[in-house]
Structure formats: structure tokens, C-alpha cells
Amino acid sequence: MLIYVQLVDRRIEIVADRGISSKVAQSEWAAICRSMEKSFKEGKFAEGALQAIERITALLAKHFPPLGENPNELPDKP
Length: 78
Hints:
The chain is built from 3 helices and 2 strands; from the N terminus they run ββααα.
């Protein structure tokens, strides 16, 4: 998942891989983007971003529920 915020053009996009895109409709991502844009226009940047992350997390959990133990698959170092 990538949340792309372009401040210059005031655009927000959510990019999902093919596996996620096959389960979640583009309209779901668009609705989250529009909600973020609305919050950002009101100057509520942190609130808008956190609400978007919560909505994305709920969508992912619905279509890809965690199973038992969920180890970190990739290192956290850059």
C-alpha cells in the first residue's frame, strides 16, 4: 500500500498491488482519498491521514485477515 500525497497539485492517490486491487474496488480507495482531501483543506492533516490509515487497515483486515501468529516478514531497517 502506498498513500501518495502530492502537495503541489493537491492530489492524493492510494496505490495497491494486484492482489489487493483484485479484492478492493477502486471506488473504496477514491472515497478514502476524497475524505483525506477534505480534511487537508480544513487544515486537519494529522487527523485526515490517521483516519485514512484506519479505513485502509479495516479494508485490508476484512479481505486479508491475519491468521494466527503474524511475524514481521521484512526487516525494519531502511
